[in-house]
């Protein structure tokens, strides 16, 4: 469910017609619906509460880390899953207290570990023995103990795109479940650590409950073993990964309520607080990418709509063969025809949609690339010296530019040419 809908033939974000935003802000731009973010968070957290699961939702902010979005979710009581010193800084800037922050990631630097210790975070989700040793040493220097979980790789097939599956044994993530007890024993013996939890994350855009169920079973077995080894485990972190509907033609992924019911079935056995790290489920359908058609072009075999948004703005179609629905902001009457919607970047892989049936679209028309609120703006780049596009948050009748454009003039101004440059080319 989201709050982008046609009203009198014009696509709106909540109560704001999209052409009004295009006029005020320009295109392309990302547009987020505050009501949709809040709704998704409440549906997810509410389903866990209704299922009787003692829980903390730590939003995986890598999906969309705009400060306005984080502030909105922090206000709802969300915790945050951070994966870098930068994200930690963002969570703190949004007012998220340390006791609601978990730190994931396979390569945390000493500086990042130290910053998170200073922030008093809830838990470090460690991914290697090497990380445990570093974390312990840094905590000892500070005279404290770091709360730690080990991210365990349950070796399940998440049945998602290979680039975003993380739970199989051949990926770089986590420690193998077969070695977990031994490594937990090592962790417990380190002077700067306090073993407090168990962690997993098996991948993203998962559209069936089976891989989750399998992984929860593996983690439950491990939890029993760890408790019998004498570890005081006070929480289990089940990661994120619940898929969202991108494509009308595909069956919908499980509902948050169904996912929560599955978590609840395992939660009794876990017997501790459950942490969840949803990202996409909260953010994806809360945002769109608004773009204008620069040219309509007929090729030998195809019709192309050349949009002003490109792969640098939304890389998902190019990188993961992802499907995003494309809606005309003001639909023209007439037959649908298949078109390729491409951007201006000089690469064949620069497209937003291929062979997509669309109603008639003319130069100057606005298109909405749907379900772009997660892994959209955060993965954008300035490739081809393009603008990092603005982000806009809508709430009811209001809208606000929550991040302005980062335009070529500013990009150039940030670069520096040494005064010996002529000698270097002599
Ligand atoms: N927790 C950890 C440790 C993660 O690595 C991730 C995502 C999440 C939680 C959140 O997963 P979600 O609920 O959003 O599925 N850029 C890709 C997705 C990469 C996901 C990386 N990890 C895409 O655009 O599809």
Automatic annotation (TrEMBL):
Pyridoxal 5'-phosphate binds at residues 241, 277-280, 375. Substrate binds at residues 280, 316, 320, 347, 375. GO terms for molecular function: diaminopimelate decarboxylase activity; pyridoxal phosphate binding. It catalyses: meso-2,6-diaminopimelate + H(+) = L-lysine + CO2. Its cofactor is pyridoxal 5'-phosphate. GO terms for biological process: lysine biosynthetic process via diaminopimelate. Residues 30-373 form the Orn/DAP/Arg decarboxylase 2 C-terminal domain. Residues 36-284 form the Orn/DAP/Arg decarboxylase 2 N-terminal domain. The active site is at residue 346. Its EC number is 4.1.1.20. The keyword Amino-acid biosynthesis applies. The modification N6-(pyridoxal phosphate)lysine is found at residue 62. Keywords: Amino-acid biosynthesis, Decarboxylase, Lyase, Lysine biosynthesis, Pyridoxal phosphate. It is an enzyme of class 4 (lyase). Pathway: Amino-acid biosynthesis; L-lysine biosynthesis via DAP pathway; L-lysine from DL-2,6-diaminopimelate: step 1/1. The keyword Amino-acid biosynthesis applies. Specifically catalyzes the decarboxylation of meso-diaminopimelate (meso-DAP) to L-lysine. Belongs to the Orn/Lys/Arg decarboxylase class-II family. LysA subfamily. Homodimer. NCBIfam families: lysA (TIGR01048). This is Diaminopimelate decarboxylase. The gene is lysA.
